[in-house]
Amino acid sequence: MNSETVMYKQETVAPAKTFVNRDASQTRLIAGVSVPDGPLITAVIEHAQQLSEPYLFNHAMRSWLFAEAIGSVKGFNYDREVVAIGTILHDIGLTASVSGPNRFEVNGADAAVSFIKGKGLSDRRAQLIWDLVALNSTPSLALHKEPEVAVGTMGIGLDYGGFGLDALPAADVERILSVFPRLRMKQQFAETCRGYFCDGDRTCMPPISRTSDGVADRTGRSINTSSIAGHPRRNDVVTKFHSALS
């Protein structure tokens, strides 16, 4: 077990015996970010950690923390538990334990909803979680959906490619990266996707790639990231996100 995992385990709240209480007023700090707390979120975190390689689990946790930070800074009104579940589980379709005939986002969305079934969420909230997981790599669609889907996608996009990084203080970003290091995420993610191309039972779209003016999502649409650059200290943080894009 690596040091990052040990550090996180020390912060984990022991799960309760019921999933009924989903009061978003219950919060705790992870990497300096105030996040909703409760037995269901704890169970989701443990589930993601059990399924995922360390690089993928850290990516999921950073995505959640970035989504919460963005939501706080921009003053969005959204269901924080839905965003937590959707972002933490958004890449379980890439794990060995989840398979299916569809692209990994859809397989993962089905698996996420299966995991939360019977844990007290309404059909509407479960649908939002499905949408967030299934559309997480297609911001050209997800950002036009409900606030939960959009905010979760913003957090995932910020961690994957630095999209919207300029909205957060550099010190906050650095703190999240220090608690959940990237662990060569881009390279390992690409290797995982290449493995999917060789597996007839599961499919994966190519990873996000660099374009002349920014980064393209999996639909091929270009996303300009030039606004991220500017302050020297912020450029150091940006480098941590973008060094593996080329």
Give your account of this protein's structure.
With 246 residues, this protein is mainly alpha-helical. The protein has one domain. It is built from eleven helices and five strands. It has a three-stranded antiparallel sheet, with no helix packed on it. Strands 1-2 form a two-stranded antiparallel ribbon. α2 runs parallel beside α4 (80-88) and α4 crosses α6. The longest helix has 21 residues, at 54-74. Residues 1-23 and 202-246 have low confidence and may be disordered.
In short:
The chain is mainly alpha-helical and 246 residues long. Helix content is 53%, strand content 7%. Strand 3 (209-211) and strand 4 (214-216) form a beta hairpin.
Keywords:
mainly alpha; two-stranded antiparallel sheet; single chain
Task: Give a topology summary.
Blueprint: H1 3-11, E1 27-30, E2 33-36, H2 39-51, H3 54-74, H4 80-88, H5 104-116, H6 123-134, H7 139-142, H8 147-161, H9 170-179, H10 185-197, E3 209-211, E4 214-216, E5 222-224, H11 232-242
Antiparallel strand pairs: 1-2, 3-4, 4-5
The tally of helices reads 11
**Main beta-sheet strand count, sense and barrel state:** 3 strands, antiparallel
- Termini gap: 30 Å
Helix and strand pattern: HEEHHHHHHHHHEEEH
Strand order of the largest sheet: 3-4-5
Q: Indicate how many domains the architecture comprises.
A: 1
Mean of pLDDT:
78
Q: Indicate the low-confidence ranges by residue numbers.
A: 1-23, 202-246
